[in-house]
């Protein structure tokens, strides 16, 4: 056997452990909501990382970009960070869940894992109906906010049901007296509990939290980690 062949075999064997390590990556992508940034997801990301997952906390211009541009941006960032992961999970807040649904519908990867959506307007929000009817609010909140209404033609209502492992966490604490004038029924102050549900979801749980701060709820964090690990929520209070 030639020396060249021996060195080639040795090199391939040296690369094998690294390749195996790369393919075993289990990545959780975090995607924040409207008018927020990746900073809003940092405490949740720290909890998920402490549970043993690799976390990628993405940022995107939720207010200034169109829905199509947001989906394209998510595709670009996922391609750059973690396309090679063995499992690619998502944890989203509010609009982040709708962007993820649209991205999965257009670019579903073969390695898609589990998805946890916190307070997603899966059937729209009545507050978005108000935005759609106001030029000033559309300017302030951006073009995508106006697409999150409750009518049949809204973006979330045009997307397909879930055909992946999906856990939905809804908030039940409405602490905004203004929104109570427009959001009927049990809600987190922005999205009704019934609107968060999605056909095809694997599990559903509610937590005592508002829309704005649900990603900082201790119980929401615990339920998120439990679903990422097992595909189901634990359904037991754990320190709200």
The low-confidence runs, each spanning 5 or more residues with pLDDT under 50, are: 1-23
Q: Please count the beta strands (DSSP E, at least 2 residues each).
A: 6
End-to-end C-alpha gap: 66 Å
- Taken from the alpha-carbon principal axes, the silhouette is globular
Overall CATH class: Alpha Beta
Q: How many domains make up the 3D coordinates?
A: 1
CATH-assigned fold name = Rossmann fold
* Category from helices, strands and their pairing: alpha/beta
| Gross CATH architecture | 3-Layer(aba) Sandwich
The tally of helices reads 9
How do the strands and helices of this protein lay out in sequence?
Elements: H1 3-23, E1 26-31, H2 42-50, E2 54-58, H3 67-81, E3 87-93, H4 95-107, E4 112-118, H5 126-132, H6 135-141, H7 155-158, E5 166-171, H8 193-196, E6 203-207, H9 218-230
Helix pairs in contact: 3-4
Tell me what the structure shows:
It is a single chain. The chain is an alpha/beta fold. It has a single domain, classed as Rossmann fold, CATH 3.40.50.1820. 39% of the residues lie in helices and 15% in strands. A six-stranded parallel β-sheet has the order 2-1-3-4-5-6, sandwiched between helices. Helix 4 links the parallel strand 3 and strand 4. The longest helix has 21 residues. The relative contact order is 0.13. The N terminus is likely disordered.
């Amino acid at each position: 056997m030639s020396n060249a062949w021996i060195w080639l075999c040795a090199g391939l064997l040296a690369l094998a452990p690294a390749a195996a390590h790369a393919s075993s990556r289990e990545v959780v992508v975090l995607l924040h909501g409207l008018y927020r940034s990746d900073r809003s997801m940092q405490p949740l990301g720290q909890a998920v990382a402490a549970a043993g997952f690799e976390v990628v906390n993405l940022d995107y211009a939720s207010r200034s970009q169109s829905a199509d541009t947001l989906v394209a941006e998510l595709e670009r960032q996922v391609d750059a960070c973690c396309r090679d992961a063995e499992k690619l999970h998502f944890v989203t807040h509010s609009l982040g869940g709708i962007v993820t649904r649209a991205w999965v519908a257009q670019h579903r990867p073969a390695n898609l894992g589990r998805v946890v959506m916190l307070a997603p307007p899966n059937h729209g929000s009545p507050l978005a109906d108000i935005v759609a009817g106001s030029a000033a609010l559309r300017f302030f909140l951006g073009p995508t906010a106006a697409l999150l209404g409750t009518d049949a033609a809204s973006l979330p209502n045009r997307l397909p049901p879930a055909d992946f492992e999906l856990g939905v966490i809804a908030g039940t604490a409405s602490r905004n007296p203004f929104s109570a004038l427009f959001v009927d029924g049990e809600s987190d102050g922005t999205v009704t509990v019934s609107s968060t549900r999605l056909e095809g979801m694997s599990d559903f749980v509610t937590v005592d939290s508002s829309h704005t701060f649900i990603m900082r709820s201790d119980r929401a964090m615990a339920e998120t980690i439990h679903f990422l690990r097992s595909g189901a929520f634990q359904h037991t209070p754990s320190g709200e």
